[in-house]
Amino acid sequence: MKTDVAIIGAGPAGLMLGHVLRAAGVACIVIERQTGDYILSRIRAGVLERGTVDLMARLGLDARLRAEGFPHGGFNLADGERLIRIDVAALTGHSVTVYGQTELTRDLMDAAEPRGLEVIYEASDVALHEIAGDAPFVTYTKADTAARIDARIIVGCDGYHGPSRRAIPDDVGRTFERVYPFAWLGILADVPPCNHELIYANHDRGFALASMRSATRSRYYVDVPLTEKIEDWPDERVWDELAIRLGPEAAAHMTRGPALEKSIAPLRSFVFEPMRHGSLMLCGDAAHIVPPTGAKGLNLAASDVHYAAEALIAFFQKGDADAIAGYSAKALARVWKSERFSWSLTKLMHRFPEDGAFERRMQVAELDYIASSEAAQRSIAENYVGLPT
Ligand code: APR
Ligand code: PHB
Known about the structure:
Blueprint: E1 5-8, H1 12-23, E2 28-31, H2 36-40, E3 47-48, H3 50-58, H4 63-68, E4 70-72, E5 75-79, E6 82-86, H5 88-92, E7 96-98, H6 101-112, E8 118-120, E9 124-129, E10 137-142, E11 145-150, E12 153-156, E13 174-189, E14 199-203, E15 206-212, E16 218-224, H7 235-246, H8 248-252, E17 259-273, E18 276-277, E19 280-282, E20 288-289, H9 297-318, H10 321-325, H11 327-349, H12 357-372, H13 374-385
Parallel strand pairs: 1-2, 1-12, 2-8, 5-14, 12-19
Antiparallel strand pairs: 3-7, 4-7, 5-6, 9-10, 10-11, 13-16, 13-17, 14-15, 15-16, 17-20, 18-19
Bound molecules: adenosine-5-diphosphoribose and P-hydroxybenzoic acid.
């Protein structure tokens, strides 16, 4: 097979990019290791920046998002019994939209066939070749048959564990990483949310987050030591911990119920530079990871897609090679700003084992400053809704 752009990975980044390129008349094929059902089974954050909503709208794929998503004009920082509301709408003129990543991915998947976007699922042994030249290709196996796709450009949208980043030579690539000394235990339950907006809580016993998927489905998190096992956390223990950490007001409105899903995930900040080498470009988790505090992962994938599509369309429609060459610097400028916001909110709202009394005082002083300063709140708000691309 031959195409203009071979996209590896059919998560949000790969599917968003495929749709944008297809709509612009740039030929592309998406190659995915898993089945569509497997991809949809992954529970991920669901707070969309305005840029992500706008991208779905430009694709004409925002109908369900508009009908079922929840516009949120604010969110809350809880520090013990104090609740600091960040009035995002008033401070920025924009809101975020609460809409599960699973649902956004479903919308992109369902539109692929009707729009002629070719997605090859269950492709194994995917490998990248000749990425330093102008005629790269991808090989893979499908139903025990070896296959090859020749492309002008390959875009790695294959997540943190995919092969694309690893195809860039060690003497070219550079990584920046912070692994956090705790993990998040998440629980999904068909119970109404305890609050109409998100609550990020910093309590003496640790971090908690109250989020939601709908008016009848809630998503909660507590941070736990890296050594914890999910079998040591029966539902009741999770609900008890949430009730303490979120504070009495939230606890009074919290409805308990059986976990539909419960899992523990570690946190890291990670950036790989450059996001382009030769004829290979990277988008999304293939190039960077953020801690989930602030829900930037999916939105950063959308941001990369915005810049990658802009460059690829200029290249294929106008022969503008500089656009491809300029992609990495443009994408990374916004990646690092989101990495900073996610890292700073993680630092503010979690207790680090190595921290002492001074660091706790710094957290309290910063929360006092945020509570008393419109400028401080505006800074948080403009990062939360999404910096301009
Ligand atoms: N061959 C083909 N596909 C692969 C391979 C491979 N060797 N390795 C991984 N993939 C696929 C995965 O199965 C997955 O469907 O690449 C896709 C990567 O999707 P994501 O990991 O979701 O990454 P991305 O599309 O960048 O979206 C980032 O997703 O994981 C969340 O928290 C993350 O919200 C963020 C968002
Ligand atoms: C979620 O709803 O799963 C969620 C929301 C906000 C976050 C992380 C996760 O920062």
